[in-house]
Records
---
Amino acid sequence: MGLSNIFNDLFIIFTLMFYMEKNLSNMEEKITIISEKTSIIA
């Protein structure tokens, strides 16, 4: 029971990391756009 939970958690973590790595460049673009908009407002 405990072992399968560990493998399940690892699978979820690796999946999240994979998606985050894929979306990292998109996130950076969004962050720069947001920071540019906020600097215009400020």
---
Amino acid sequence: MNIESFQTAQVYALNYKGDIIGGYIADLVVDNKVILEIKSVSALNELMAAQLINYLKLSKLQVGYLINFNSTSVVWKRFVCTS
């Protein structure tokens, strides 16, 4: 796999009826196709998963990885959003 480009701290605006009411900041976006959300916590949880799913919906990207480096081995989960 060749990585063509990546963006760190990619901002996705949250719009409601044409007004920007907030936003989300994804840790890393690779080739404008995949979001990598990096964590260093004792365990991944459902709130972190929901956060990544929201990033995928706002960005209109389909694939994201939730990655945790705070354990004896790297733990990751893959998410696919098709809606």
---
Amino acid sequence: PYGYPNWQWSRPLHYINTPSWNCNYDRLRDCVNDVCVAGALNNYSKRAIAADFDDIQHQEAIMFLVHYVGDVHQPLHVGFQEDRGGNSVRGKSLFLNSKQE
């Protein structure tokens, strides 16, 4: 959503952040009011098949649904809150194609 002002409302829907002291997902704790990617998947799955929606609304729901399925497969989109989506993780660079192997 960066660079897309009309879509800023969707920013928290791309992630699940869990406390680092507990390595599991708890919907009530980690997705309050369904404001996380799991909540977005649930919402847009229902919207994609809603009988009272028109074709444009179904298409938009499916587009969001496909995007959010991709988000949950990104390793740093589902992780510890303190990691800030990987922005707080420090490590050494590794170049797999280097001649020093």
